[in-house]
Amino acid sequence: MEERTLELPTHCQRTDLPDSVVQWDSREDCEVRKQLDRLADKWTLQVLALLDHRTHRFNELQRRLEGVSHRMLATTLRQLERDGMLIRTVHPTVPPKVEYTLTPLGRQLHGLMRPFVDWAESNTRTIAMARTAFDARATGQ
Predict the structure, then answer these.
(1) What is the domain range of residue 127?
(2) Average pLDDT over residues 100-108
(3) 46-69 burial, b if ≥16 CB within 10 A, otherwise e?
(4) Of 4, 9, 78, 82, which alpha carbon lies 20 to 30 A from 109's?
(5) Is the pLDDT of residue 14 over 90?
(6) Does residue 57 contact residue 101 with C-beta atoms inside 8 Å?
(7) Residue 50's closest CA among 122, 99, 118, 121?
């Protein structure tokens, strides 16, 4: 390595330090950052919420997720399967029947995300008022 060149490891180090947010938030190759990015995408939490109730087939999920494209849903499901959050089961029928079910890891994640959703729902009005006040200040009204 060249002198004064910073080596960035693949995995985050010491996330218990007060400034550790800088480590996982600024490095694309950090595994924690990758997981947080997955959770923050548009469809992941909605898929987890639907599968938390019961097993679904692909078309059921697509009907319930208004606005999701076939490609985006397939990508989201594939990523969640790869991360161990769900199981894809193909039944040997004609046409093939494919079902998606949460794994214990996926259920655990959904359980952790539920309080964040509850917080957002209970603070919607407060956030809307804060946004209105901010926008008024920003436009000089």
Answers:
(1) 27-138
(2) 96
(3) bbbebbeeeebebeebbeebeebe
(4) 9
(5) no
(6) no
(7) 99
In a domain, 107, yes or no: yes
Partners of residue 57 on adjacent β-strands? 99
19 is a domain residue: no
Residue-wise pLDDT tens digits, 19-30: 555 555 556 667
| Token reading at 85 | 């959050």
As for how many domains the chain has, the answer is 1
pLDDT tens-place string over residues 26-61: 566 677 777 877 787 889 999 999 999 999 999 999
CATH code for position 93: 1.10.10.10
Report the pLDDT value the prediction gives residue 6, as an integer from 0 to 100: 45
Instruction: Pull the structure tokens for residue 113.
Output: 């995300």
Residue 1 near residue 8, CB atoms below 8 Å: no
15 pLDDT above the threshold of 60: no
16 assigned to some structural domain: no
48 close to 106: Cβ distance less than 8 angstroms: yes
Greatest CA separation found in the chain?
64
For residue 78, tell me if it sits in a domain.
yes
Of 24 and 94, more confident: 94
